[in-house]
Amino acid sequence: MGILMNRRIPLIICFCFGLVMFLQYFSNHPIARSIYQTITIYWQIIFAFTLVIGVISYGRINIKNIIKGSDRIYMIIGLIGLVSMPILAVIYGIKADSPFMWIFENIQAPMQATVFSLLAFFVASASFRGFRARSLQASILLGAALIILLSRSNIGGFVADYLPDIADWMRNYPSMAARRAILIGIGLGSLTTSLRVIIGIERTWLGGEQ
């Protein structure tokens, strides 16, 4: 009985808030606007708590890996950065000449650029495997990708002057049509999942289906 009540209360709360958020989009009444603004403030509070939970989980996982001895040096550096950056921000602020900004611009930003530059090789490898002309559809995809790539490089101007115009047409019409179809599918899927959660059919977010 206690477990049933523990699951019923979150379902009731989810149904009430989901119904309110759904109905307020169809009303311009000041009460509806104030409800939306109030719930938006609570979203920010929830986001702050999730950030705290993420930091705690990151620290626990790193400490556990340090004890086990797996990638210990990287875990120690990650924990030092996790602890030192907030402390430096509180003590010295986040001005342009502060230690916080110096570490951000000279350590974190170069590391982010390095990671994103490495992603280009993974994208190229995946494109090479995916763009093999094994069928008519794959051949069309390969040709479109080559036209787009050539139009975005200096080589495209030497191949043909009208190549950028063809690439723009492909992005504005066939690519945009496919993108809108995907977005419509995502919207319908999100709507279906939201209704299942609000009604109570989807209960996996409670830790189970019962």
Quaternary organization: single chain
The succession of helices and strands, N to C, reads: HHHHHHHH
Taking the sheet with the most strands, its summary is:
none
Rg calculated over all Cα atoms: 26 Å
By DSSP (H or I, 4+ residues per run), the number of helices equals: 8
Question: What is the approximate shape?
Answer: extended
From the helix content, strand content and strand pairing, which structural class follows? Answer: mainly alpha
Describe this structure as you would to a colleague:
- This protein has 210 residues and is mainly alpha-helical.
- Helix content is 81%, strand content 0%.
- It has helices at 2-23, 30-68, 72-92, 99-130, 136-151, 155-159, 163-172, 174-199.
Provide keyphrases for this structure.
210 residues; mainly alpha; extended
Helices and strands in order:
Blueprint: H1 2-23, H2 30-68, H3 72-92, H4 99-130, H5 136-151, H6 155-159, H7 163-172, H8 174-199
Helix pairs in contact: 1-8, 2-3, 5-7, 7-8
